[in-house]
């Protein structure tokens, strides 16, 4: 007979390892590229963490690792809170959907870059949403949590504009002020923020539905 706990732990372990693998491959590729042209490796590290995809996947891998490990800690308790894990689920869903809708057609990676690309934009969003659906406790999310969740993309947007202003380098074409201008960039950002909020509403709705379904099945 299959042990549900063992299956869950195995799933989380594999997902966590794949998350860190995708991040590691992408970091290696960026640093190797910088080293090849004798550019600053520190600059490469800063470039690596300038992408919303990388930051969100780092949060995903962290939550999964906290779930996988059993040693109690303040960090583990924080990341395993349902509202925190749900915020990460919304963010990684935005990563996957935005990439598929706006960025996938712009390039055709090969080799290791293709592997990193698939892991960070396709595999990890699906795996983490599966983790959220099956493993994160339901019934505690409220609409007020959206106000906390949007702080992350807003801070990221502000940081990207500041960094772009100083270095003239923007992580994504839809927030490239030099090419699009501030009005269009703010319009694009507003559209993405609306998408973020809509996905948040869907997550909260699913949370409530799953909780209600669970209560109904227990009463029967």
Automatic annotation (TrEMBL):
Q: Which controlled-vocabulary keywords does the entry list?
A: Membrane, Transmembrane, Transmembrane helix
Q: Where is the signal peptide?
A: none
Q: Which InterPro entries match?
A: Pr6Pr-like (IPR049713)
Q: Does the keyword Lipid biosynthesis apply?
A: no
Amino-acid biosynthesis among keywords: no
**Residues passing through the membrane, by range:** 12-33, 45-66, 78-102, 114-134, 146-165, 185-206
This chain belongs to the protein called Pr6Pr family membrane protein
Organism of derivation: Pseudomonas violetae
